[in-house]
Write a structure and sequence with these properties.
- 2 copies of one chain form a homodimer.
- Chain A is of the alpha+beta class.
- Chain A folds into 3 domains: about 150 residues, Butyryl-Coa Dehydrogenase, subunit A, domain 1 (Orthogonal Bundle); about 130 residues, Butyryl-CoA Dehydrogenase, subunit A, domain 2, CATH 2.40.110.20; about 150 residues.
- The first copy, chain A, has 18 helices and 12 strands.
- In chain A, the strands form 3 sheets. A 5-stranded mixed barrel of chain A has the order 4-5-12-7-6.
- In chain A, β1 and β2 form a beta hairpin.
- In chain A, α13 packs antiparallel against α14.
- The longest helix of chain A is centred in the middle third of the chain and has 37 residues.
- The termini of chain A are far apart.
Chain lengths: ~600, ~600
């Protein structure tokens, strides 16, 4: 089997870099210890090896497809995958005991998901969607709603989804028109169309629970008039029977990647007979939905990192096994060819991938840890964790997806012509990855969120938390002679971010808001380089500390040396582009404010 | 029909930027004038609109596939396309009159090919391969060989291919083992396997002529022992009959893109009955092949630019027609949504695409012009054109393919979720484009060619020609106040390239050759930014000159203004990354020389 992740590295991230053990002293996680959670993570690997990875290619080659009459045909293995994952706790595992969960920290739950994402990202989507939607019901639903829906979802028998996008509105949720008319007791008559509903219909589950944004008649315009509804495809009656609820799947989008994952078009209430159950209070739907949305954004970022990891692992294996060519210094054509991993340019491509995939995964784990602290700790720690998570969420989502695609392109490049063929998985990784910069808000949307909301929130406190966290890592690195230059480099980059924000600050008034935000995507790129450099300096400092103090097997020593080496590589090959981004932003001319769009002629 | 190129822009490149009219004063092209050649180019557009563009999606969805017994099933339209293209001169058009061609300048021939590449890049491959292979026969073959093969190829009845890659050798032609044993009179018995042979078998032609690299028994090792053979699938006997020549198609690779284009595995001499006809002299095969290879590299670069152009045009149309969201400064949700082209970030993505696609296409046209001068002019002009073309060839190939992929990713991004679906062409552009950085030598190979051969050739004369050409453009731009800062910026970047080369020069000894070349790909990226900046400054200077001197319709004025604007955009958003590349290269540590490959653990 082609390798798709590195368990030793995952353990390093959990145990040494992001210190999952800290969490076990919190009351919520006091029932756990390291040995237990690592066994749980290892069980995910067994499951992925047996039931997911072997079907990665097949599920791409037999895409989910609409049957013309409301159904979506999916690969038969999907049912096994969802049921097995549910049985082992990989749908409801992060939920509280009272809701039938294992009360796992998000770090552990998502360490398992990472394995699934790397093994077969399309099918992992089904259960992370179910988990996120069920969590929304447990957060904001009443007891009856929780009891009615959540257990079925955690058992993997019912699929839960999130239904936001409408054909005419796209990313603009302000313009949602799906309507809801009260018919009594929290139940509404629903009418509307939703598109791009992942997992909205397939053959592996018996029922579909759509958490749907809609507008109650008479609601205020804009996002302040949006409510959230639970709309099951089959309504569970009091007597336990299921009754068709006028939720019709009208199509399944065919895509360039994630082809085994259904992407449906849903019509609610074509026969005027669709009921939705209001979740929480009216008009607060968007803020509720953002619980799931924020988790989903971290999840998409982590998925992108995981798929990039799988492509890296596949190309690394190939580079280690494929003899081809000789070094430029070797002029004798009679000498046998060398393994391609010995070519400096192949090493460059591997190190770039390692830097991106492992850097992004480390950031995702940082976010998972912050999620746990924001939910299970208290006081200042809770608030500062939440603030830091808020500012990192658009970054982990965007960096991992944008640079993940670049990383997978290098995996193809290492395989050469073979990489472009369906005989190898890297082209599928590349295709699958492309959606990650679009899911749950495009890179453009994430960048507006970062610069327009997160940088400014609580008078810059979230940004302050970020600067402080990076500063802590810099201070630790500064204690080692070898790491000092990198610590200084990162400190300079923090300073550069502040200069850019001072420059942009001039435009952060209502009158020039469009100008302020116009280069948000470039600012995103700049800060992303710095944040990933932080993750690398953090990993390298820990690895370097280990190298000073202990005796290891050769392999472990090389692992730590590889960490320090890759940190240096990232600082040398990637980080200089942060300065280029700053240069772009600081330029005085406003070039993307074309009233005369005809210059595109 | 979704637009795929811009004829007004193509005319601008041919007539104003690269002054095709100059060529008509050369004897070889003295039979032509502007009106004629533009009519020829326009005929390509009609053909592409009618016979190619409408089948772009279909040919992707019904990929070329092996029939299990030596044949490759292709889309029925392919036959019409090849015959129509042949009839209108789009296979043999650049050949001399004496070989049945129209003696068109490469600029005009490739202006037509650009249209086909943008309309349906997979099918254009078939005829550019035939054209290149036939040109090789006319260059190095004897009269009988030319008479026997070339007319059939130009008629589009026989497909010609290039057969280099072998399974065990990949990019390393040194390691070719296909063997040739003399059986008499220039004819050899051939035995061997070739893979990734584009157009090696399909349903639209009656015969296949494989220009094949093989090693004559007893030949010296390495590339100096490689000869070039014409190996037809069916051997044309003296009496005009065709006899099966033991060339068996053993498979067709399935790919992530260019799916309508066959990519075959060929077995020569399985029955010990395959004859090859030596082309030119023994052991000179590789140098002959490089005629075709160099043209093919420019062709691949141009194709990448053309596909990026098609993706840009499709996303531009979408951005002009799709209402969604409001500007950040607009807080009223009751206001109707704006067209997405009005969002600064969408403008940024469109301008980035325009800058890449039009910049790369301009560079391809520069190369086509140099090709014409190197073949049809004389004396110093001929030699300096050839030198400049030599150094630009790996650059146009690499920049267009690497940045073209980035450009098509932005096209997907503009369409959001729709861009990922097969309902829109941009995802196909993105998939098709990925092969361009692998065809005819990967980015790694091109970068070694640039830094290891081209920069050093004739004691740096090729590089000198490049610096001189860029300097000429800078001097012209310097005469306008508005363009001065950009001229200065580009001059600084030329200086930076020289500093980098001085730095690298320290390693350019035999002992440190591996180190010298280790960052060749980063140097490629650096010089590419500068070369495309040159093309933009050239276009902008011409556009700005026009804006000073003449009265135009509003539309033409906006076109010129758009050129100046996009130049500014490129200098601000793209060019700063050249400095980042230089910083990477100048770092003293050698990080991609890992003897201990285990750091990848």
């Amino acid at each position: 089997m082609t390798p798709y992740t590195n368990m030793f590295h995952l353990k390093f991230l959990l145990q040494e870099v992001h210190q999952v053990n800290d969490l076990f002293s919190l009351e919520k996680f006091s029932h756990l210890n390291w040995e237990q959670v690592w066994m749980i993570v290892e069980s995910a690997k067994l499951l992925a090896d047996r039931d997911m990875a072997p079907f990665f290619k097949e599920m791409d080659e037999t895409p989910a497809r609409y049957d013309g009459k409301g159904g979506v045909v999916t690969h038969p293995q999907l049912k096994t995958i969802i049921r097995q994952a549910a049985e082992q706790g990989w749908i409801g595992g992060a939920a509280k005991f009272e809701h039938g969960g294992l009360q796992l920290p998000m770090m552990i739950y998502n360490a398992g998901q990472h394995i699934f994402q790397a093994a077969n990202n399309g099918c992992q989507g089904y259960f992370s969607l179910s988990a996120g939607a069920a969590a929304l019901i447990t957060s904001f639903g009443n007891e009856e709603q929780i009891k009615t829906f959540v257990p079925h979802v955690y058992e993997g028998r019912w699929q839960a989804t999130m239904a936001l996008t409408e054909p005419q509105a796209g990313s603009s949720l302000t313009d949602i028109v799906t309507s809801a008319r009260l018919v009594g007791d929290g139940v509404y008559n629903i009418k509307g169309q939703k598109i791009f509903i992942s997992g909205g219909q397939h053959e592996a589950c018996d029922n579909f629970i759509h958490l749907t944004l809609a507008r109650i008649e008479g609601a205020p315009p804009g996002v302040k008039g949006i409510s959230l509804f639970i709309i099951p495809k089959f309504w569970p009656e009091k007597d336990g029977t299921l009754k068709y609820n006028d939720v019709f799947c009208a199509g399944d989008f065919q895509k360039m990647g994630q082809r085994g994952y259904s992407t449906t078009h849903l019509a609610f209430g074509d026969q005027d007979n669709c009921r939705g159950w209001l979740l929480g209070e009216p008009h607060k739907g968007l803020s509720y939905m953002f619980q799931m949305m924020n988790e989903a954004r971290i999840g998409v970022g982590q998925t992108a990192a995981s798929v990039a990891m799988a492509a890296y692992q596949a190309s690394l294996q190939y580079a280690n096994e494929r003899p081809q060519g000789r070094l430029p210094s070797e002029k004798d054509p009679m000498k046998p060819p060398t393994m391609i991993i010995n070519h400096p340019d192949v090493q460059r491509m591997l190190l770039t991938q390692k830097a991106i995939a492992e850097g992004a995964l480390s950031l995702a784990m940082e976010c998972n840890r912050l999620y746990d602290l924001a939910h299970a700790s208290s006081g200042d720690e809770q608030h500062s964790s939440w603030l830091l998570l808020e500012i990192l969420t658009p970054i982990v989502k965007t960096y991992s997806s944008e640079h993940g695609s670049r990383s997978a392109a290098l995996a193809i490049q290492i395989l050469g012509g073979y990489g472009f063929t369906t005989d190898f998985p890297v082209q599928q990784h590349y295709r699958d990855l492309k959606i990650m910069s679009i899911y749950e808000g495009t890179t453009g949307i994430q960048s507006l969120d970062l610069l327009g909301r997160k940088v400014m929130m609580e008078k810059g406190k979230a940004l302050h938390e970020l600067l402080k966290a990076v500063g802590d890592t810099i201070n630790k690195a500064d204690t080692y002679e070898v790491l000092k230059p990198y610590a200084k480099n990162l400190r300079d980059e923090l300073q550069r971010i502040q200069s850019v924000l001072v420059h942009l600050g001039k435009f952060a008034t209502a009158a020039e808001l469009d100008r302020y935000l116009s280069d948000a995507a470039i600012f995103m790129d700049q800060i992303s380089y710095v944040v990933i450099a932080w993750q690398w300096l953090k990993q390298a400092t820990i690895a370097y500390t280990q190298l000073q103090s202990a005796n290891f097997s050769m392999q472990v020593r090389e692992f730590y040396e590889g960490k320090v080496h890759t940190m240096k590589f990232f600082f040398r090959y990637e980080l200089p582009h942060a300065e280029a981004c700053a240069k772009t932003i600081m330029d005085p001319e406003f070039l993307t404010n074309l009233k005369k769009r005809e210059v595109f002629v």
